[in-house]
Amino acid sequence: MKQLWKVALVLLGGGALLVACSSRMATTPPAGASRAPGYHPGKFVWHDLVTRDPASARRFYGALLGWEFQDTTRNEQPYAIARMGSDPVAGIVVRPDPGDEPALWLSYLSVGNVDQAVEMVTAAGGETLYPPTELPGVARLAVVTDPQGAALGLVRLNDGDPPDGPGPEVGHVFWMEYIADDAAAAVRFYQGLSGYESMVQESRGGIEYHVLRRDGRSRAGLFQVPKISDENVDPNWLPYVRVEDPAALASRVGSLGGQVILAPNPSIRGGTLAIVADPTGGALALQKWPL
User: Fold this and answer.
1) Between 3.10.180.10, 3.40.50.720, 2.30.29.30, 1.25.40.10, what CATH number should domain 6-288 receive?
2) What number of other Cβ atoms are within 10 A of residue 105's Cβ?
């Protein structure tokens, strides 16, 4: 797998404009809030940083976003839960095959049946990285790559999905974007997997920005990498974290050992977006909200 942050460098560095969904962005309330007695298939409900160097990642995100960490285990392996106050927002797990690959933010999509979803993925040309597994008392989950090679978690939480709230909390992931080699094929695949409807929010420079919706809620954006470079870019899912001042945070990234992939630019979402990589290579978007 190539360095996934190159997506942002190639796309945005070439002057293309990403179109935000503004008020239609999906919202995730504090994870400690009361749960609805049901599920929301098509919603991204959890995010794990898979990294060879959890200690470096913890220092970076703690200093940059104010996350605090709780040490625990998952399937008898070390696992850290990142929190904003008392609310869990993400996990950090050691990469099983460290090698020299960069870290990866792995986002988990709520599905009605994990085993059936995995079968759908493989039938469509994807691969299973981690087969359906029961996490006692928590969830049934699996990890796959979709037909275009993007890593994705599939999950069915035991207690139901967190309900949609009035707006995203600072420090929480609140939006996802899929960068595709073939946008039309990706839309068809995720329509089949999650029952999404696709709405083209805007088209600029020949690039359409698709909003993936289900049950009246916008859950993610999707667009195709423009052919503006010879650089080979891997399709991937990019998480967005709500922050108050992307420029101020971006100015600190280098001193914390990370890299700014896209600095805030007035020509891109009015300067409200930064894309950064942590010291281990995990790419994350920092977005002011509302725009």
Assistant:
1) 3.10.180.10
2) 23
Strands (DSSP E) found in 136-245:
139-145, 151-157, 173-180, 197-204, 207-214, 217-224, 236-243
Three-state secondary-structure class, residue 258: coil
Closest-CA residue to 176 (of 14, 1, 9, 28) = 28
**Beta-bridge partner residues of 46:** 108
Specify whether the CB–CB gap between 274 and 95 falls below 8 A: no
Least confident of 15-19, 74-78, 185-189, 225-229: 15-19
The stretches of 108-175 forming alpha helices (DSSP H) are 114-123
Give the Cβ contact number of residue 16 at 10 Å: 17
| Pairing state between β 104-110 and 151-157 | parallel
Contact 203, 27 (CB under 8 A): no
Confidence grade of residue 66 (pLDDT, cut at 50, 70, 90) = very high
Report pTM. 0.87
Q: Show Cβ contacts of residue 138 under 8 Å, excluding neighbours closer than 6 positions.
A: 157, 158
